[in-house]
């Protein structure tokens, strides 16, 4: 409830305001000349000019603080009060107008900071990618109001990235990088539109300017690189031989990490950062507390994976399974080893290509159902039966499937090594 105007109001002047004495609580002294304009006095004697009135058409009452006496003179404050009262008579709430004014000044950097600071919403890698694009790709825009970002700006910057990238300019980027950058920008602008409104209640950004790129964006072909079926054995055998002759700690970690990727189909970030506290060898599983899909899960280990982990040396004061002398404390990118493995595979192979290799071996070579393969690779499954009738957080029950994949790798490697092998029946 707003304070009612006093019938004893008198025109506020410098002399009148200077003579005001504070009381035991906040008191209001109203101006006789402009109804709704007044001075609020706190018990400590602080005087602040205010204006209050009713917004025409809405019935809402509003009180707005103009500013402190000393910052505003009485006459300056009265002029501001007249403007606010005029707005109210026109049906505009000055508080909404102030919010809109503040929202119109919000910069891309401020939106980014708010977006990435939401508790539990983003993984560290996603946050880093978003902040990096704002800091680099959109460096010229980051300190400008988001409402000033236009379709023409988006189209020009996108094409500029593609052109510079094609010319080999280090400031440019591949089509994939350009697409990712503008996906980030689109998400940030959508977030700004939801969080901030104009005075009439409409979104701060009515139309996302990134949408103009719908017809400009380069359509990327799905990445399908993997170790081909006839090279899987050679790759597994090469890794086994390299491991037998490795003596450097980082080299051993890199080889074992890549072998572990082939045995589990994990994402490189999930495998490389694995800690001993997550590994339960006696029970034949390891735990991922914070995977990419945000669903904590316990994954089965084949006997090959168990033996690999048992052979891993533990390093004092380093909790990682695949430790490194690097600052992170663990192997992050086994780049040199992947180059050697690419020669064996006959094509460029990345850690993620090993994930595709694992999926292909599971589906095509081991005939494992797709929903079980999705679970083994920790994909979000769309299988209703799996979602509602299977335990999708403790996957030790999929150990037989994991074992099939480990056995297949050994069998293919044995063929390459020239062993006289006979395919054994799949383990139950």
From TrEMBL:
Pfam family, any one: Arm-DNA-bind_3
The organism's place on the tree of life at top rank: Bacteria
Occurrences of domain Tyr recombinase (ranges): 223-402
Key words, A-Z: DNA integration, DNA recombination, DNA-binding
SUPFAM superfamilies assigned: DNA breaking-rejoining enzymes
PROSITE patterns: TYR_RECOMBINASE (PS51898)
InterPro entries linked: DNA_brk_join_enz, Integrase-like_cat_sf, Integrase_catalytic, Integrase_DNA-bd_sf, Integrase_DNA_bind_dom, Integrase_recombinase_N, Phage_Integrase
Keyword match DNA-binding: yes
Family stated for the protein in its record: Belongs to the 'phage' integrase family.
PANTHER family: PROPHAGE INTEGRASE, PROPHAGE INTEGRASE INTS-RELATED
Descriptive protein name: Integrase family protein
Origin species: Sphingomonas colocasiae
């Amino acid at each position: 409830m707003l304070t009612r105007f006093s019938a004893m109001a008198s025109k506020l002047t410098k002399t009148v305001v200077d003579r005001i004495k504070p009381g035991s609580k906040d008191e209001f002294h109203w101006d006789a000349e402009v109804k709704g304009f007044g001075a609020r006095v706190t018990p400590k004697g602080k005087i602040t000019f205010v204006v209050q009135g009713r917004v025409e058409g809405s019935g809402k009452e509003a009180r707005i603080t103009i500013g402190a006496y000393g910052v505003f003179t009485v006459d300056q404050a009265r002029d501001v009060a007249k403007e606010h009262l005029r707005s109210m008579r026109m049906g505009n709430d000055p508080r909404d107008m102030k919010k809109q004014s503040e929202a119109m000044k919000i910069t891309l950097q401020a939106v980014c900071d708010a977006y990435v600071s939401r508790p539990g919403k983003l993984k560290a890698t996603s946050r880093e990618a978003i902040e990096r694009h704002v800091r680099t790709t959109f460096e010229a825009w980051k300190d400008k109001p988001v409402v000033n970002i236009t379709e023409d700006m988006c189209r020009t910057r996108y094409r500029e990235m593609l052109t510079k990238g094609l010319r080999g300019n280090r400031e440019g980027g591949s089509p994939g990088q350009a697409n990712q950058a503008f996906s980030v920008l689109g998400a940030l602008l959508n977030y700004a539109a939801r969080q901030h409104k104009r005075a009439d209640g409409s979104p701060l950004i009515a139309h996302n300017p990134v949408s103009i790129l719908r017809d400009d964006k380069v359509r990327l072909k799905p990445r399908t690189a993997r170790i081909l079926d006839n090279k899987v054995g050679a790759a597994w055998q090469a890794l086994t031989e390299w491991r037998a002759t490795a003596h450097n700690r980082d080299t051993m970690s890199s080889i074992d990490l890549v072998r572990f990727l082939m045995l589990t189909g994990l994402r490189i970030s999930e495998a490389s950062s694995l800690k001993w506290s997550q590994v339960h060898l006696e029970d034949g599983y390891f735990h991922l507390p914070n995977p990419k899909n945000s669903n904590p899960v316990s994954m089965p280990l084949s006997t090959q994976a168990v033996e690999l982990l048992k052979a891993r040396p533990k390093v004092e004061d380093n909790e990682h399974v695949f430790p490194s002398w690097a600052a992170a404390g663990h192997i992050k990118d086994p780049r040199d080893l992947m180059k050697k493995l690419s020669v064996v595979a006959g094509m460029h192979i990345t850690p993620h290509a090993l994930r595709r290799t694992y999926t292909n071996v599971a589906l095509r070579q081991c005939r494992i159902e797709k929903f079980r393969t999705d679970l083994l690779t920790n994909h979000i499954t769309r299988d209703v039966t799996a979602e509602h009738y299977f335990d999708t957080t403790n996957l030790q029950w999929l150990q037989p499937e994991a074992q099939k994949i480990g056995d297949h790798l050994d069998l293919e490697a044995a063929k390459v090594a020239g062993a006289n092998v006979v395919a054994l029946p799949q383990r139950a």
